[in-house]
Amino acid sequence: MSESLMIRPDRPRLKNRHLGLILALAMLLYIAAVIVFIIIY
Question: What is the pLDDT along the chain (41 residues), one digit of tens a residue?
């Protein structure tokens, strides 16, 4: 795994940014689901 990271040094930053975006979206969806659950029940 460390070898593949050494071959491509410009990729991790882009991947981390993409991962952060997915995490933010997941958090927003989770919060929205909780709010909907509270409203329904």
Answer: 455 545 555 555 667 778 889 999 999 999 999 999 999 98
Which of these, 25, 32, 26, lies nearest to 40 by C-alpha position? Answer: 32
Among the listed residues 35, 14, 10, 11, the one whose alpha carbon sits nearest the alpha carbon of residue 22? 14
| Residues found in the chain | 41
φ and ψ of 10, to 5 deg: -95, -5
Q: Are 12 and 5 in contact (CB under 8 A)?
A: yes
pTM greater than 0.85 (yes/no): no
